[in-house]
Design brief:
Blueprint lengths: L3 E6 L3 H13 L3 E7 L3 H11 L3 E3 L2 H6 L5 E4 L6 H10 L3 E4 L7 H13 L4 E3 L7 H11 L6 E9 L18 H17 L5 E8 L6 E9 L5 E7 L5 E8 L2 E5 L12 E8 L2 E8 L2 H14 L8 H20 L3 E2 L1
Parallel strand pairs: 1-2, 1-4, 2-3, 4-5, 5-6, 7-10
Antiparallel strand pairs: 7-11, 8-9, 8-15, 9-10, 11-12, 12-13, 13-14
Helix pairs in contact: 1-8, 4-5, 5-9, 7-9
């Protein structure tokens, strides 16, 4: 079987602990190199993860003709530079979320990737877990009746105020870091795009990034939704869909991979009672395999550039609304 040869740009924790091991578990990919601007850091990561080759610069890695694709877990503000540079070297690109910090940045990336005929995807791994497909099926079957409301939340308490997630210049903020999942989940589960956005946020007075954000997406059809994200609140990662006959709650919406057996629980409550359904899946590996199949076998991406554009459009509008206090039409 053909395999996709991956290079990893940086030794970021998400790559070391989640994405690299997932690619190594996959049936169609292998990690052949990792780069860091600190050669010793690259060597330590390579030794820890059994990666055969290291580079002391990102440029050197993307120059290597043996590497087919790169995974980019760099700080948000560096995504555009390295997505475009990788594309120009004919490398397929899987980039961490949020893929960009503005609509304009994303368009530049997409243009570069299309010009160079490379596959490009944002790493929203949670959507590959089968629990979400099961939720959609329950909704389509009318188990909870007509959907009237949905809320999605993702937060964790970030005590270290020097953390990169709070660095404005590098694209920090709770919405960029975890709130983007809440926005994505609402649009993904409802399978609709909003017509307007309203958001409100607490911006740290010294760091100038949002540490808590909340708001609503208006779909123009009577369905009310709310989202929130925070670095000031205790850990939550859940969503709830409420209909005329019942509700569905997902308690490990975005990181069910941390549960035993990578199991996600789907709590379904109707007039007939409460039922807890289970779905298991390796979301990071499923993402890596989908990406590799798109490159190797020309299969469709589960998450393509049209969906990426729609997500970025909403994310951009959320920030605009939080800063202006205005409802932003989409």
């Amino acid at each position: 079987m053909a395999t996709l040869k991956w290079g990893i740009l940086s030794t970021a924790k998400i790559g070391r602990t989640q994405v690299i091991p997932a690619i190594q578990r996959s049936g169609n990919g292998e990690v052949v190199a990792i780069a860091s601007r600190n050669q010793q850091t690259a060597k330590e990561a390579a030794e820890e993860l059994n990666i055969p080759r290291t580079f002391d610069s990102y440029e050197a890695l993307i120059d290597d003709p043996e590497i087919d694709a790169v995974y980019i877990p760099l700080p948000n503000a560096l995504h555009k530079e390295w997505v475009i540079k990788a594309a120009e070297k004919k490398k397929h690109v899987l980039c961490e979320k949020p893929v960009a910090v503005t609509n304009e940045e994303l368009e530049e990336m997409i243009i570069a990737c299309e010009k160079n005929s490379v596959v490009f995807m944002e790493a929203f791994m949670y959507q590959f877990h089968p629990q979400h497909q099961k939720v959609k099926k329950l909704i389509h079957e009318g188990v909870i009746g007509d959907v009237a409301f949905m809320r999605a939340s993702f937060s964790f308490y970030l005590e270290d105020r020097s953390n990169i997630r709070l660095n404005h210049d590098l694209g920090g903020g709770s919405m960029f870091d975890v709130g983007c999942y809440s926005l994505h989940a609402i649009r993904n589960i409802l399978e609709q795009e909003p017509v307007s956005v309203y958001a409100s946020a607490h911006y740290h007075p010294e760091l100038n990034v949002d540490t808590t954000m909340t708001g609503t997406l208006n779909f123009g059809n009577g369905i009310v939704t709310s989202f929130d994200s925070s670095f000031d609140c205790a850990s939550r990662e859940q969503y709830e869909v409420v209909g005329s006959k019942g509700n569905i709650t997902i308690t490990s919406a975005f990181r069910p991979d941390t549960n035993e057996g990578m199991i996600g629980e789907i709590h379904v409550k109707t007039d007939e009672g409460t039922e807890v359904l289970e779905a298991a899946g390796d979301q990071y590996t499923l993402m890596a395999e989908n990406f590799a199949n798109a490159v190797l076998n020309k299969q469709s991406l589960f998450y393509d550039t049209t969906k990426m554009r729609n997500q970025m459009k909403v994310l951009d509008a959320v920030y605009e609304s939080s800063k202006t206090g205005q409802v932003i039409s989409l």
